[in-house]
Amino acid sequence: MSIWVLIVLLIPFHQTILCTLLVPTENFSTCFVKVSNLIFGKSSTVAYVFDKKIDVSSLNLRNNPYVLIDVTKPMINTGGYVNHYVISTDSVNGLKKTWFYLAYSKIWNDKSYALGHFLVVSSHKNVSELFQYLWQQGIFNVVILKPSKTNSVVYQSDPYSIQNNCGTQTIAVKSNVCKFIKSIIFKRTNFNSCPLWLINTNIENPYILPSLKYGLHLIHLISLNFNITVNHYTLADIRLFPFYLFKRSTIAVFIGANTPFNEFVSSERYLIHNFVWLVPLPRQMSAIEALVHIFQLELWILVIASTIVTVFVLWLLSIFVKEKYFVNDLYNIAVNLICVTIWGTISKVPKNNGLRCIIIIYMIYAVHIQTAYTSGLIKALTVPLYDHGIQSVNDLATSTLRIYSHNYTVSNLLLADINSTLMSKINSKFVNITSAGNLWEISTFRNSSALVSEQLLNQMGNLFKSIRIIRNNSIVRTIDEVFKMRPGHHFLQNINYFIKTIFESGINNKLWNDMIIRFYQQNHLTISSNAEVLTVIILCQASPSSTLSQDSLVSPPQPKLPAVITVENSVAPAIMSVPSTSKEYILLSSIQELSKAKSQNRQRVNNVLKDTKFYDNQQIKLFPDSPTRTLQSQNQITDSNKDIDNISILVQPDLDNQTELDLLEIIIEQNQNNDNLIDDYQTIHSNAGSYPNFEIPIISIAVNYGQNQIIINSVLHFSANPKTTILFEK
């Protein structure tokens, strides 16, 4: 009997101990509800995660929609994602177990969990270990609640405080008794100079695209706004220690376009690049075409038809009146009506009243037609008329022009619509290009078109003035410039907040415009209000050939395109000049002026360039052993232009060919005895070594006369890593 009583007494005692551990006291329950309301609010769905049985009714969960999760049992299905969690655990190992359970469950969203809030209920003595583990997993919006019989304690810690050393240590931990907690705020605006790893490939290149440079500028402003230290890394650095850069706690930011990669999440877009269609300008009509174009085709058909009908009506009436059939009457009536139509006069008025009425009505009609034609004729004789040309994407689809674009643009940015006849026509016209050299055909030969981004169009500047730009994004996606981060990183909220702020305030447009002006002023352009400019269009295509021996004569083959230089005068507000301190200069424009010229000398330069033809049945001699390669031509400069000292031509091989030749300078000399001619230039060669002979497209011309010099650039080439470096200085 005593043994049974002992067992009965032990069971109630054991149950009492369990209730003390798992069922909170009234003090804890009140504290739990208070802290939950401060963290989650009263409308957010909260997931309660436990690794032991608990009496849920004692937690008073009536304020929020909630989900109960038992980590000891498998999760079968779920109705959606949850970002707010309450985790109950007694140790760091229990926290790790709960974390792995959640991270691989269907309720977990790896891209948004860091935006949620976490409340950890634990009696673990060392709360610093709990904070440290949660920070390593990228969870920073966390509060630890330590239950107690009398006064529960709330712990908070900022990983970016100075004492915590950017989350690598857990020294500064704030603790408060629950009844003294008034608010809990997770918003961080000061990161105390903690590092931000900016990953990019062209950080040191001063000639990177303006959009990329603008992204770097925004990162700089973000670092100032949130007190962050920016460290630059390249993709090569990532390969050395990728694990560290891609830890959940590391603030690693990429700059690039918004492409659908699951490995990263994108911020709000800070720049939008539209695509434009480049088509030839309408062709100017000849004099005969202009006279015919005054009326549309439909109106001409109606005029001719009305004249023919009137002729037959008058002829039939004349037959009815005379009661005789005469073919000559048909000819006379036709001649009279043509005279009435063109000159408004008639040689003989019919005696019949019916015929007279018809003639009078037709004369009134003819006067109106003549008046309309004369008014249009005045415009045709005073203003050049152009044909309709290509004014829309539909016109381009029905034309015979091929469309130049990059394969990536065609594959990824065109909207796929297999039911669209327009898309099928457009897709059949695309031709892949890797450089901008083919774009010359649009304005010069009018036999092609192109699909390029507005950024590329702006960068080409004055290269393509004689083109029509069609802005139509109905079948082409835009390119959004964004910042990318690891999925689930909390700092993405700060970046989005900054971007939305500058967009809503209008600061973004001003920052972009100021950056564009500063970019071209510092690296490429010098603004000049009254500049004399020579624009040269050089049309020359060639390919590499075999290496030549010394003193061998070369007769280059005829190029695919006419290699005749044509010159036209123009004035532009922005003139490019070479920076005096630069050691590398990438040619990006067709216009450049280093000094002003007198009118007569400039005219002589024009004459020389107009009369100069390259690859035109000339015997050119190559000297392989000279330090600077020189091609001499005996009869390029005539005696009538003796003020011209020399013409220097910078050429560049095809960038697609693998060769040691990075730069070659050709100088056409008038005075062959001038030994100091090369000293007038500062020429920078990328690589030294053997230079095989190349038939190469000309990309720049420098003309020297007296103390003046003009450098004129032409054909534009793009390369992933351009090495063409040259400076001309007097």
TrEMBL record:
Cellular component GO terms held in the UniProt record: plasma membrane
Subcellular location: Cell membrane
Pfam families: Lig_chan (PF00060)
Signal peptide start and end residues: 1-19
Keyword Glycoprotein: yes
Residues in Ionotropic glutamate receptor C-terminal domain copies: 297-505
Record carries keyword Transferase: no
Alphabetized InterPro entries for the sequence: Insect_Ionotropic_Sensory_Rcpt, Iontro_rcpt_C
Gene Ontology MF annotations: ligand-gated monoatomic ion channel activity
Transmembrane segments: 299-317
Keywords, ordered alphabetically: Cell membrane, Glycoprotein, Membrane, Receptor, Signal, Transmembrane, Transmembrane helix
GO BP terms, alphabetized: detection of stimulus involved in sensory perception
UniProt main location, coarse: membrane
Membrane topology per record: Multi-pass membrane protein
Gene3D superfamilies: 1.10.287.70
UniProt family annotation: Belongs to the glutamate-gated ion channel (TC 1.A.10.1) family.
Protein name: Ionotropic glutamate receptor C-terminal domain-containing protein
Source organism (scientific name): Aquatica leii
Taxon lineage: Eukaryota, Metazoa, Ecdysozoa, Arthropoda, Hexapoda
